[in-house]
Amino acid sequence: MKFAQISARFLAAVQGREWPPWQPKPCRCNLPRPIPPRLPRFVQMPTKTSRNIAKSTMLPGRPSARFRLRITAGETIAIGPGKIALLEAIAATGSITSAAKSLDMSYRRAWLLIEELNSALGHPAVDSAKGGQSGGGSELTDVGRQLIDVYRRIEATAEMACAADIKLLMRMLAR
């Protein structure tokens, strides 16, 4: 092939009339896929979590104080606000599945928390029956009900004992 022919082919290729023979033609599988446009953050729906619920119930700009008691056994939290909330939800709904849904928690997570709590206590806090035709269910034992009562009483006592100091802290906050 002469130089004139090669340059003519190159020119034709550059102008888009023909693909250069020394380069492999691209196949459609190697082309980059179009990336779907992402919605702006303010358009996307937030996930419903207990923190979002707590934030939405608080008045904007108004400070609040909350006590979050945790009792640990080694590295695990034996008793804490999440487990107490789960126990209260089980008492209200009568099942682990419904309680987990009401707290926006997976069933597995709820079950693991209950197992962790039951193994940390001397006696189980939750008694569960397997599902079937009559359906299963879960209910709190006397230990579970007593655990909720004692935990909430400790929270209330701590809040009353610290009320004057909490007011002082609230006044110190910039508004």
Structural class: mainly alpha
Classified in CATH, the superfamily of the domain at 71-172 is: Winged helix-like DNA-binding domain superfamily/Winged helix DNA-binding domain
Task: Give the CATH topology of the domain at 71-172.
Answer: Arc Repressor Mutant, subunit A
Largest sheet: 2 strands, antiparallel
Q: What spatial form do the alpha-carbon principal axes imply?
A: flat
Low-confidence stretches: 41-53
Q: For the largest beta sheet, what order do the strands appear in spatially?
A: 1-2
Counted beta strands = 4
Beta-strand residue fraction: 5-15%
Distance between the termini: 83 Å
Question: What proportion of the residues is helical, as a percent range?
Answer: 40-55%
